[in-house]
């Protein structure tokens, strides 16, 4: 942020994330994250990629951005 600049808040004042109301399922997000990670980090073990995608999905689940 430039000196003296005002921060930009994303989302609503109530702490909810900004969204259009459409939620992706956990399974769809998990697969997409796994595939993207596999393409960008091809030398990482499958188990590590799986753990990474699970942590990412869990963060989205806690924020309410994915549905079961």
Textual characterization of the structure:
The chain has a domain at 24-67. It has 2 helices and 2 strands, in the order E-H-H-E. It has helices spanning 26-40, 46-63, and strands spanning 24-25, 66-67. Strands 1-2 form a two-stranded parallel sheet. The chain starts with 23 loop residues before the first strand and ends with a strand. The model has no long low-confidence stretch (mean pLDDT 80).
Features:
68 residues; mainly alpha; two-stranded parallel sheet
How much of the sequence is in beta strands? 5-15%
Number of E-state strands:
2
Secondary structure tally, helices: 2
Contiguous runs where pLDDT drops below 50 for at least 5 residues: none
Short description:
By secondary structure, the chain is mainly α. It has two helices and two strands.
List the SSEs and their pairings.
Blueprint (H helix, E strand, L loop, with lengths): L23 E2 H15 L5 H18 L2 E2 L1
Parallel strand pairs: 1-2
Helix pairs in contact: 1-2
């Amino acid at each position: 942020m430039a000196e003296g600049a005002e921060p930009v808040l994303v989302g609503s004042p109530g702490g909810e994330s900004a969204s259009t109301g459409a939620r992706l399922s956990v399974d769809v997000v998990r697969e997409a994250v796994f595939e993207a990670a596999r393409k960008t980090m091809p030398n990482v073990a499958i188990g590590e990629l799986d753990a990474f995608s699970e942590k990412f999905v869990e963060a989205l689940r806690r924020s309410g951005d994915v549905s079961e």
